[in-house]
Specification:
single chain; alpha+beta; four-stranded parallel sheet; globular; disordered N terminus; disordered C terminus
Length: 914
């Protein structure tokens, strides 16, 4: 680190963090001698397009990679254009400083950002690495005293990850362009995640449903009703769902059970109802449930997805804001460890809120063990500080409140006593049959008073609910009030949700918990996966790409191989492995990535690569083309094809659906009737984007007849002529707004049904129809605060920006009110409200954040030509892994979400000297 100079011996002390929110929070805990500035995330990255590459190296073979594979894998770094102003500001502030504190996050990513700051700013004053895992006054004051040097092992591990992801993405993605379709991407972790989802879909395709029946009795004793199910008949156990193979759906081989059909179950129901019902066995057993450990990154993402419905990406965004505002400890951690201060704070909360009987005699401790593929261990994710703020006293709202509440409860529950329960099981005999009943009562709730862990299995959740049985003793008689046969069928393996995918990736050591959110976001953004409710459903593109990679580049989508890569990166971070040697072993040599892709490219037939078959649908072939997925078959010896709608899932498409698509393509659809105004026929059709209604036939004179999509949850068979006419008449007028006199309309758009008034759009809630919504209901919706997508209504108009002329307005966002001018957003400073902020303050905040870019196009960056685009894969694959320097420390920093999200365009700066 640089030595202190006389010139700046008495100046300010400059502290650099990643985000403005973090900077604002830290300023509260430092005196006037400190200036806290934000570097806005990463300030350098590998080139993202050909225009970023310096002229002197553009002709080099490795230039497009941005990594000199012939010279020790030396990365080529450049400063994004949007970061030049940030860098200049930091340099200006540093010129006035007597000391520099690099206060980025305490992980590989944060270490890498600090190293890049050091390389770019070249400080001539004493420079210290300041680390903390929570933003509280005590933590910040302690961090100022306990500074350290930059950990170059962490930086090297980060750079190795960044370079490795660039090599994999930029080497495999062009292969997919040539053999499948242009613009497809591959990634070191992304492709493995897609494979997991695809393999689950293939399991669902292979699955064959089996039907089986049971008998359900409603019994009564002492006025208490309870349920009992047939377990045994004539000394043979009756089959239940657990007797069937979860992958095939068929009865597991070797199972000696009675599989009832509908007739047998109905006959048993009729024969047994009138017989005497007698209790033949009762068993009571006490049980205990222990609380779950405090949150780590992966468990927070899973539980947030289950309980709050937040995606992994949304969870991390909200958690980041909570951390930066000082509400929680650092949210990227693989440790369940709680400090003594945290344990003490938890126990104080338990005593005051629930009572001493809920407090464990001794504190519970959770080992700081690392999970497979873990990053640096911190403390568990918990409320910040030595006294935990009650969620209701934080002033938080929306997702921030819900996530903080979840973290608070999980932390508190981890120090509470076990829940005590009593399980009761009884057997009731009637004739040759034995029925079973079970109950569970909570004797003492313990930690359940504060927190109940979620589950992906609704049946498991059901089993945990309290079920009370009447007092039963052997030889007691019970009354049968109802006896019915029950129908069941085996269910295919459940598709992955974000929660279960994160759980599997963590278990297999694929990627790191801190990257799961960006990995899942990437595969959805790239069109490999779509969400159906909470399920992750692979597209046909995902199926075909995964087939190609599994067949020709097997190890690069192999779970074990990818897990070993993570372990090697961990070894680099621990200083146990040389990063350059490791990259060479992966990329170079006869068995390296480059040679493997070159040799396999010759073996891949593009037509075969774009084609796949589905089990049980031998007559059809499925393909991926320029305009999406389509299927082909033969009719009368001729090849025919039809587009497959994007909402069709590979495991759910049937021969009947395929035939319908082909028939519509060949013969057209049967008309519902004729439009009374034009006399044109009206059809219900299916296209790539789902079902729609169409007015008239396609002809040379009318190549684009009027069409309207079906609303969500409306099936084609539900559409009659009047419904089709109503859809084709959208948008429909509901009436004039009494305040403005302007029309209020209801219509269907890209994001579903909506109402609109004077440019103010509102989504129509599920359960309400765009065809029947009333003027009164529309007025109610417009009176509510704006939510969701689209153009939000401004809370205040402050006036025009004096330089750009853009309007300056105050909006309400998910993280609180903010100011917007052109394309620049700025949060309101602490203590400033929507009502008190002035135009002058707003102009200052906008100018500080960045130049306001309005519709006039000032300073608008041109996009790179198509031919110069970097592979899409690598752009987002970059998010799967950041960077880490070589011995010369000429490199580092990953292409992190923040820089990407800002729409950063890259420019190259002169490389730092060794």
């Amino acid at each position: 680190m640089a030595k202190k100079t006389d010139a700046a011996s008495d100046g300010i002390k400059l502290v650099i963090v990643e985000s403005p929110t973090k900077a604002k929070t830290i300023r509260k805990f430092l005196g006037r001698d400190y200036v806290v500035e934000s570097c806005m995330g990463h300030i350098r990255d590998l080139p993202q397009s050909a225009k970023d590459i310096p002229e002197k190296v553009k002709k080099e073979k490795w230039a497009q990679l941005g990594v000199n594979v012939d010279k020790n894998f030396e990365p080529l770094y450049c400063i994004p254009k949007d970061k030049t102003k940030v860098v200049k500001n930091l340099k200006d502030k540093l010129d006035e400083a007597s000391e520099l504190y690099l206060a980025t996050d305490e992980d590989r990513e944060g270490e890498s950002i600090s190293w890049h700051l050091l390389e770019v700013l070249k400080p001539k004053v004493p420079t210290k690495r300041m680390v903390f895992h929570e933003i509280t006054k005590d933590a910040i004051q302690k961090a100022l005293k306990d500074t350290r040097e930059i950990d170059f092992n962490l930086v090297r591990a980060q750079e190795a990850r960044r370079v490795l992801d660039r090599l994999v993405g930029y080497t495999i993605s062009p292969l997919l362009w040539k053999k499948v379709a242009y613009g497809l991407s591959a990634g070191r972790v992304q492709s493995v995640a897609v494979r997991l989802i695809v393999e689950r879909e293939q399991e669902r395709i292979r699955f064959k449903k089996s039907a089986y029946w049971g008998v359900l009795a409603e019994l009564s004793k002492d006025g208490v009703n309870f349920e009992s199910r047939l377990q045994q008949f004539k000394q043979q156990r009756v089959a239940t769902g657990k007797d069937f193979d979860g992958l095939t759906g068929q009865l597991t081989a070797g199972k000696d059970v009675l599989v009832l059909g509908e007739k047998e179950a109905s006959k048993l129901s009729a024969d047994l109802k009138s017989g005497p019902w007698t209790v033949s066995d009762v068993e009571e057993k006490p049980t205990f449930r222990k609380p779950a450990a405090p949150f780590i990154t992966s468990s927070l993402q899973q539980e947030s997805n289950r309980k709050l419905g937040l995606s992994a990406r949304e969870t991390m965004q909200v958690a980041q804001k909570l951390y930066e505002q000082g509400f929680i400890t650092y949210m990227r951690t693989d440790s369940t460890f709680l400090s003594n201060e945290a344990i003490s704070a938890s126990r104080d909360c338990i005593t005051s809120k629930y009572g001493k009987e809920y407090l464990t005699p001794q504190p519970r401790t959770y080992a700081a063990k690392k999970v497979k593929g873990a990053q640096e261990a911190h403390e568990a994710i918990r409320p910040a500080g030595t006294q935990f703020q009650d969620p209701d006293e934080t002033g938080l709202t929306g997702h921030q409140f819900k996530l903080y509440d979840l973290i608070w409860k999980r932390t508190i529950a981890s120090q509470m006593v076990d829940a005590r329960q009593k399980q009761v099981s009884a057997k009731i005999t009637v004739g040759d049959a034995i029925f079973g009943a079970s109950g569970m009562t909570i004797e003492f709730p313990g930690f359940l008073r504060a927190y109940v862990e979620g589950s992906d299995d609704p049946e498991a959740d059901l089993a945990e609910r309290e079920v009370r049985l009447p007092a039963l003793k052997v030889k007691d008689s019970v009354k049968c009030t109802k006896l019915d046969p029950t129908s069941h069928e085996t269910k295919p393996p459940a598709r992955y949700t974000e929660a279960s995918l994160v759980q599997t990736m963590e278990k297999e050591g694929i990627g790191r918990p801190s990257t799961y959110a960006s990995v899942i976001g990437t595969i959805i953004d790239r069109g490999y996966v779509r969400k159906g409710g909470t399920a992750l459903i692979p597209t046909f593109t995902a199926m075909i790409v995964s087939k190609l990679l599994s067949s020709y580049l097997t190890q690069y989508v192999d779970l074990g191989f990818t897990s070993e890569m993570e372990q090697s990166l961990d070894n680099i971070a621990d200083g146990e492995l040389d990063w350059e040697s490791y990259l060479a072993s992966v990329y170079k040599g006869p068995k390296g990535l480059r040679a493997m892709v070159d040799s396999q490219e010759e073996k891949i037939n593009p037509d075969e690569a774009r084609t796949m078959s589905l089990e049980g649908m031998d007559k059809y072939k499925f393909h991926v083309g320029r305009y999406g997925a389509y299927l082909t078959t033969q009719r009368d010896g001729e090849d025919v094809s039809a587009s497959v709608p994007d909402n069709e899932s590979p495991a759910d498409i049937t021969p009947e659906i395929a035939e319908k698509l082909i028939d519509q393509k060949i013969n057209g659809a049967d008309a519902l009737g004729k439009d009374p105004k034009t006399g044109e026929p009206i059809y219900v059709l299916s296209g790539r984007y789902g079902p729609y209604v169409q007015l008239g036939d396609v002809s040379p004179e009318n190549d684009k007849p009027k069409r309207a999509s079906l609303p969500p949850n409306m099936q084609p068979e539900q559409v009659d002529l009047q419904t089709a006419l109503d859809l084709l008449s959208l948008p429909r007028s509901l009436g004039d707004h009494p305040g403005t006199g302007k029309d209020i309309k209801a219509g269907l758009g890209r994001f579903g049904p909506f109402i609109v008034h004077d440019g103010d759009y509102r989504s129509i809630p599920k359960g309400e129809s765009v065809l029947t919504i009333t003027f009164e209901r529309a007025m109610e919706m417009l009176a509510q605060p704006k939510k969701g997508r689209g153009k939000a209504a401004a809370l205040r108009d402050l006036g025009a920006h004096p330089e750009t002329g853009d309007a300056i307005q105050v909006f309400n966002g998910p993280y609180g009110p903010y100011i917007k001018s052109g394309k620049v957003n700025a949060s309101l400073p602490e203590g400033t409200t929507v009502e008190t902020v002035t135009l002058e303050q707003a102009v200052g905040l906008i100018n500080e954040k960045g130049p306001a870019k309005g519709s006039k196009g000032k300073g608008k960056a041109k996009s790179a030509p198509k031919a110069a685009k970097a592979p899409k894969a690598a752009t987002k694959a970059a998010k799967e892994a950041p960077a880490a320097p070589k011995k010369s420390l000429k490199s580092a920093e990953s292409a992190k979400d923040k820089a990407q999200a800002l729409g950063v365009k890259k420019v190259v700066t002169r490389k730092a000297k060794k």
